[in-house]
Amino acid sequence: MESIKRTNYIFVDYENVQELDLNLISGKPVRVILVLGERHKSLPLELVKQLLKFPAQVELVETVRSSKNALDLVLASHIGEAKKTDPHGYFHILSRDKDFDALIHHLKTQGALAARHATFSEIKVLMTKVERVNWLCDHFKAAQTNRPKKRKTLESHIQAQFGKALSSSELEETISGLIAAKIISFTAKEEVVYSK
What we know:
Distance between the termini: 34 Å
Order of helices and strands: EEHEHEHEHHHEE
Largest sheet: 5 strands, parallel
Number of domains: 2
Mean pLDDT: 89
């Protein structure tokens, strides 16, 4: 049975985080919803250039009120709409505001995949091959008792860790990177051998 290809929805609290590199979303199953506060009447030219490169993947949402939590409430509303439309999506909130953790917890109790990140580069689906390999190296060292034992299970595990958003070539290059870094090797029976 084919696994579901997830769309990763990244809701950006632009009042809180302005450092974005939208070039990282190129060719990935990602939609960015940039939620702007009432005081954001203009955007930096570099960000505008990036927005123009990815019009099908980026949406701007303006908060027209300036009350204390107006942007947070608008962002939460848009997550609810996206979850209703795509219950299998992965919902990311890009914000240093820990108040969003309650919303993340609520989404998870409903069975949704959700996470809050303080920086754009923390979002696993946006990582480069080297970043994925480094992350997995740390992951396998931390979870030594529950590591995949067969290649097929390893492939499924890696996909799960990256929100089922890796293409087959990205998955293969990640495994090749783990082999090249001497993190893993395979036996003739496709069993995974981990380095010490």
